[in-house]
Specification:
- The protein has 463 residues and is mainly α.
- Helix 8 crosses helix 9.
- It is globular.
């Protein structure tokens, strides 16, 4: 009887079972997802402001130098860009050496607990230093810096809310995805980049994947609210090539694989050459940087096609504005210019320059194939778009990201199959030659030089 009375006195939780479970469950996963949305929003806002700052400063530089004699144009152009270079290189070397270069290897190292994330110094240096170097006319992209900015914002939010280490890594990855999504207005590419290119470092869990997706979506929404919903690059829509012409895309992809393998070797050799020149001494580092920035500032006034990130050049390559010889010359000059600028340690990336190089190489192939096989009805622009992601795939070794990125950037969904053939062919050939992802190699080099510096055997600079 007493037992019956006791049981009757217990509250009936059958109706409130789901509510009770919700109350009792761990709130941490929900908090992480909410913070991932915050990180993505911040990444979209800051990266949008970063892009606007670069464009505004470029316009100011051009306006200042307009309608002047050629000799004044050269002197003032060199001086103004050298001053911008001074700001970028000085901030980097003095306050945050890890902000030099693209910053993607730093994020990969942080996800593997090999590199610290000092967001309080990297964020201002990368933002203001990157604006200065990118607007000087140097061949640098804002996409790598956007990834580092996004990753550092993720770490900042994780530190402020004192998240456990595991969830802090999820927000770091989410910020990186949001940064890339905001840079290219490509949310799916941002997600895939973290899951494919950063797969050795990314700590796979359902929560981390959701956090990355939410951040990329929120970053894209913020960017589109600021910049509009249009594709980053406005290009014609090309028809899918005939099946009998697809082998040409495979041949072009194999050539891109060789080019990507050689390009990665040249990047590492060029970085070592710069280190031998400045020996990580501030005055040398800054002086060399000013010389590089000033030189490309002058070039941007007289030969704009061989300077800048390259995304503005891509639409002009699809028509008949340039002869074959001119296209090959622009490709050769931009290849050397990319190595000179990126390897100098300036806060800027190589993402956009490789896309421009891939487009140039692809359109050259397209014209050659069109002349050699006129019966196939080949459109050179289709090869240019397929080549846009091929060099990226061969150097970064992320073919799926390359395919999706180019598709989202150009809105040419009908070329997915040729892009797949080209990028996979480029990746396989680069791998067969013994090539490795460029960001992994740069990270290994940074760790090696940091260890030497710690032992007192030499000096290192972040790349």
């Amino acid at each position: 009887m007493a037992q019956q009375a006791l049981s009757s006195s217990e509250p009936d939780t059958s109706a409130r079972g789901p509510v009770s479970r919700i109350i009792r469950q761990d709130k941490m996963p929900l908090l992480v997802l909410l913070l991932a949305a915050l990180v993505g929003t911040l990444a979209g806002l800051v990266c949008g402001l970063f892009e606007s700052g670069v464009h505004w400063l470029v316009e100011q530089r051009i306006t200042l130098l307009a309608d002047r004699p050629w000799w004044q144009l050269g002197l003032l152009g060199f001086g103004f860009s050298a001053l911008l270079g001074f700001v970028g290189y000085f901030l980097t070397h003095s306050f945050a050496p890890e902000a030099g270069g693209s910053g993607i290897p730093e994020i990969e190292g942080a996800m593997d607990d090999l590199r610290p994330v000092r967001w309080w110094r990297v964020l201002p240096v990368k933002f203001f230093g990157g604006i200065c170097t990118l607007s000087s006319g140097m061949v640098l992209g804002r996409e790598g810096p956007s990834v580092q900015i996004g990753g550092n914002l993720g770490k900042m939010v994780a530190d402020i809310f004192r998240l456990p280490k595991e969830h802090g890594h999820a927000l770091l990855a989410a910020g990186a995805a949001g940064g890339l999504a905001a840079a290219f207005n490509a949310p799916l590419a941002g997600i895939l980049f973290v899951m494919e290119e950063m797969r050795p470092q990314f700590r796979y869990s359902f929560l981390a994947i959701k956090a990355v997706g939410i951040s990329a979506i929120m970053a894209t929404l913020m960017l589109q609210n600021m910049k509009g919903q249009g594709a980053v690059i406005t290009l014609p829509h090309y028809d899918a090539p005939a099946l009998k012409a697809l082998w040409l895309f495979l041949f072009m992809g194999a050539t891109f694989g060789v080019l990507g393998f050689v390009f990665n070797k040249l990047v590492l050799a060029c970085q070592d050459g710069y280190l031998a020149l400045h020996q990580n001494k501030r005055h040398r580092f800054v002086a060399i940087g000013m010389l590089v920035a000033g030189t490309f500032g002058v070039l941007s006034l007289f030969a704009p096609a061989v300077t800048g990130g390259g995304t503005e050049l891509i639409p002009h390559l699809m028509g008949d504005e340039y002869a074959m010889a001119t296209l090959f010359l622009i490709f050769s000059v931009r290849l050397v210019a990319t190595l000179i600028c990126f390897c100098s340690g300036a806060p800027g990336g190589v993402f956009a320059p490789t896309l421009a190089l891939g487009t140039l190489f692809g359109v050259v192939f397209g014209h050659l194939f069109h002349a050699a096989f006129p019966e196939l009805g080949i459109e050179p622009g289709a090869f240019a778009i397929a080549g846009m992601g091929a060099l990226f795939a061969a150097t970064v070794r992320a073919p799926i990201t390359g395919i999706v990125l180019v598709t989202e950037m150009t809105d040419n969904y009908q070329l997915i199959l040729p892009m797949m053939i080209t990028t996979v062919g480029a990746t396989l050939v680069a791998q067969a030659l013994g090539g490795r992802p460029i960001y992994s190699q740069i990270l290994e080099r940074t760790l090696r030089l940091a260890a030497r510096q710690k032992r007192g055997d030499g000096s290192a600079t972040a790349s």
